[in-house]
Amino acid sequence: METIYSYSANSLAGETIPLESFKGQVLLIVNTASRCGFTPQYRGLEQLYREFKDQGFAVLGFPCNQFGKQEPGNSQEIADFCEMTYQVSFPLFEKIAVNGKHAHPLYTFLKSQASGALGSQAIKWNFTKFLIDRQGRVVKRYSPFRAPAAIRSDIEHLLQNQPTKP
Predict the structure, then answer these.
(1) Whole-number Å distance between alpha carbons of 132 and 28
(2) Does the active-site annotation cover 36?
(3) What is the mean pLDDT of the segment spanning 51-55?
(4) Which has more confidence, 152 or 165?
């Protein structure tokens, strides 16, 4: 069975990060943007990350400029904005496409594993979230309207009910 561990992505610093390096953790993968109505969700994502990271949880942020050109900056501008405005300390990756023929392979996989509203595979907007279990399997997809705090109980459930190593 294919998992997210088959993929890699470049950090904002340009370093290739195999997602296998997150093996055994519960993950929340989110496409982000700095100039979006949902941008304040960075605060809630960071809060979840800080609260649960010592239990084997991480948020992985993937900036995307496909929705209303709401992520126009380069990697350094994105990093600076996230750090200065929301004190983001969770891993952020280079800007990617999440839809279309240039979609990052990770997002093609995520969408194939958990559809959105009415069975749609396409990502509809920034801050769509995917919850991943400790085995690298997609558990659930959340719309941008779902605040990070509303996902808390699902994260806690995975952290409490799965062994820390696959």
Answers:
(1) 6
(2) yes
(3) 96
(4) 152
Distances, alpha carbon 143 to alpha carbons 23, 35, 165, in Å: 25, 18, 29
Domain of residue 117 covers 4-161
69-100 confidence digits (pLDDT tens):
999 899 999 999 999 999 999 999 999 999 99
What SS3 state is found at 62? strand
Task: Please return the burial class of 23, using the count of CB atoms within 10 Å of its CB with bins 0-12, 13-18 and 19+.
Answer: middle
Q: How confident is the model at residue 45 (pLDDT cuts 50, 70, 90)?
A: very high
Catalytic residue among 9, 19, 36, 110: 36
Matching residue, tokens 């195999």: 18
Q: What does the alpha-carbon distance between residue 62 and residue 72 come to, in Å, rounded to a whole number?
A: 13
In a domain, 166, yes or no: no
* CATH value at residue 77: 3.40.30.10
